[in-house]
Design goal:
With 438 residues, this protein is of the alpha+beta class. Helices cover 51% and strands 16% of the residues. A hairpin with a 2-residue loop joins strand 7 and strand 8. This is ABC transporter permease.
Length: 438
Amino acid sequence: MLAYYLRLGLHSLRRNPILTALMVMAVGFGVASSMTTYAVFRAVSGNPLPDKSTQLFAPQIDVWGPDSRARGRDIPDALTYKDATALMHEHKAARQTAIYPVGFTLVPRDAAREPFAVSGYAAYADFFPMFEVPFLYGSGWNAAQDEARATVVVISSKLNQQLFGGANSVGQTVHLDDHDYQVIGVAADWNPRPRFYDVNNSSGFTDPPDFFLPFTRAIDTQTETAGNDNCFGSGGRKPGFDGWLQSECAWVSYWVELPDAAAVRAYRSYLLGYADEQRQAGRFHWPSYVTLRNLTEWMDYERVVPPETRISLVLSLGFLLVCLVNTVGLMLAKFMRRAGEIGVRRALGASRREIWLQYLAEAAIVGVSGGLAGVMLTGLGVLGVGLVFEPDIARLAHINLGLVGLTLLCSLVATLGAAFYPTWRASRVQPAWQLKSH
């Protein structure tokens, strides 16, 4: 019977091509607008490290006091150098790393090539296993090399392609500013979106870093941060690089890996105890305040998802609702114009359920057709999303089989939902009235 109802539906739709086209396009445009904005929202709000997001935590320590909050600031979203190195030294977590962005000028070995700017991060050895960085060649450095301030570097696959043609470059030398660094590893194509470990310095959707080098080495060469340097209440700091390191300026991102709830409780207690020690030593003059947020909580705290993506998604859903309301009106008009036909079928013995299924099958055809139109329009929408969103965000949106399937499913479900009232009305047509009037 379903095949019979589908044939009846196709025949009915062909009888009114203009009305059918209006319904299909209404559904298609509504679904396409929703799926286009959903593709962007999904790209910027996804979990960048789902298998470890509940084990990675970013600690915060209030080094600015209540005066900063009175002026509308929260506690700093980074640590001072003093706090970061103290936490690293005490090593109370399973793994931990301090991180800050740096920038250099790379001088190629080929004298015919011009030097160019590169950007990357200074970090500790635990960075690579903590964040599951994949490698094409070699590996990261170890804790002993952190202590030795080793002149080693991990470069990206893109930089490896530029400098060494993609070959295994482990053991080769790269010249960054005035120093030579030995390549110890080549990272594979790795750039989690959002870049959760540095959202306090960037949007989280920029190009992958070119390199990683030891934090201790960057400090040894007096390399300043290429990111934010928040110095609220540190106007009286001593001059020079050492004065900056000993100031209350917050610029070091810090992450710890805590494998279970007991480790989280222990580390939170340790963090509060550390802040109490600093207060008792006279560094702070306010009640100790610390926080410990896991990866997903951290991204929410940093408002990683751009507000315009949420607004666009809500507006597109509203547009879909308007399109479905119009579809309801078109279906109701189409079905009720066939009241006489429905009355004859009911008089010949068709049940209300059979009438309902017949017109629901017709609505399903509209839904599938609208879905196919929606897929094509979504493709165009994804191509043009750069007209609305920033390029770093727009290029994240893409069409895949999952989105195509979701578009078709959304179109079918939305159309069947919109058809509920028109098909119900059609099944309630009274055959006696229709036979008498016709």
